[in-house]
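Reference record:
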Amino acid sequence: MASELSEPTDADLLAAHVAGDDSAFSTLFARHRDRLWAVALRTCNDPETAADGLQEGLIAAFRRAGSYRGEAAVTTWLHRIVVNACLDRLRAARVRRAEPLPEDVDDLRPVRQTVGDAVDPADQSVATERRALVRAALGRLSEEQRAAVVLVDMEGYSVAETALILDCAEGTVKSRCSRARAKLAVLLADVLDVTEPTGAGPAAGATDGNPASGPDVGSLTRRGPPAAEAGAVPQAPTVD
């Protein structure tokens, strides 16, 4: 009875989609929607480009589900498709700008606090400014370096998993992360506390694994695509 009531695994849902289940892919995507969106946004550093990349990645995954062979976790497979779609968009458009997100983005992020807790406006202002500076610094990185450091330092993927997602050697991931951290350490020298691990400097970026922590970037947006995309992205696309 317990096994009958347990939720299907990601692999089960993908297999059901391939077999013709109309709702399986939507269920799978809804399960990982927040994290996929966060990765797309941080990789693109622009909400519109990220939404387009996520949508294209979703359609590609929907159509190519039959090519999944189980060599990696389904989440790794999904991230690989979405990140590649985002990188393709960035390369095609030659996007190299650090464009700030809408001013109300962080205001939409859920704030975890208990009843009676008060938020110090000064602290909130400093945190908002800090996140904006980190976003701008990320925008100064190359697409490849940004994708690597976002996956490893911000999303917590291992170097091996990131290499699978980016379809490159582990040594390449380590090199990109190392260069990204070195550049971020310079760009953020005035805002990062040197007494705490930053994930952006050599001391915190040992190349054989993930750093203990990264810069305090907070959430770059609310959890999920922009409102204009909310009705379209989570749904499985219509395929002719």
Observations:
- The chain has a mean pLDDT of 75.
- Residues 198 and 215 are 5 Å apart (CA to CA).
- DSSP finds ten helices and no strands in the chain.
- The radius of gyration is 19 Å.
